[in-house]
Amino acid sequence: MQSTHKIALGSIVVGAVVLGLKYLAYALTGSVALYSDALESIVNVATAIAAFFAVRLSAVPPDSNHPYGHNKAEYLSSVLVGALVIAAALAILQAAYFAFLTPHRLEQPNLGLAVNVVASVINGVWCWVLIRYGRRLRSPALVADGQHLFTDVMSSVGVVVGVLLAEATGIPQLDPALAVLVALNILWAGWKVMRESIGGLMDEAAPPEMVNQIRTLISTHAEGALEAHDVRSRHAGSVTFIDFHLVVPGSMTVSESHAICDRIEDALEEAIHGARISIHVEPEEKAKHTGGVPVV
Hints:
Shape: elongated
CATH topology of the largest domain: Alpha-lytic protease prodomain-like
Number of domains: 2
Radius of gyration: 25 Å
Main location: membrane
Keywords: Cell membrane, Membrane, Transmembrane, Transmembrane helix, Transport
Strand order of the largest sheet: 3-2-1-4
GO molecular function: cadmium ion transmembrane transporter activity; ferrous iron transmembrane transporter activity; zinc efflux antiporter activity
Strand content: 5-15%
GO cellular component, one term: plasma membrane
């Protein structure tokens, strides 16, 4: 089983454990804020399952129906994560509304908070694992899952503070008030996840620093060519697609131009994990000069 698969499967296990602990915290206290925290954990489990199947599908090799691979499945999973996060936030707002209408004192708040803190620590550690290894493995689904868990950790901190304030002041309305603030924060996080994932589905270019790296590598490894132009790049999950036109002298043989292309491809593949390169060789009369990549 690949590393991304193991991590995604681990998310399901961790999510189930945290869900059980947070629901126990709610059952012990009756706190709407802790209930909201548990509700978000249900989404964590659902999104972890979605991420697991997404990374498995994205690893399927290209076939006749999907010649460029299945990498965008991870972006679809990330969009689902964002949608579920937003749905959870709306459910929290609904629960907070009813808690405002019928406020009540909490039962066993100290024990419930202790259980919730344990769950939050587990979430925090796993969040770090997901984001670190998701970026290392170039997996948008794992990174999105980690970012979602981070908002969960932050909301859990807010929930604990709210419950403590409600008990210390004797004002039960503080419990649902904190839940509302948490829900608004979750809404914003869900929108950010969806926005980034939609960008991937729309074939956004690679980040500017990577584009500059690509152009530099082409320039320094294209000795014998005249220029490169129309350099384009896009991300699809863990794969970066790169294509450009390489201008060579008209008298150059096919073998000589092919050797230059091999040299450039080797340099790009070594520097950029998951790079897939397509080069169109052109004679010197096709040179654009303006905006092209000069050969060093």
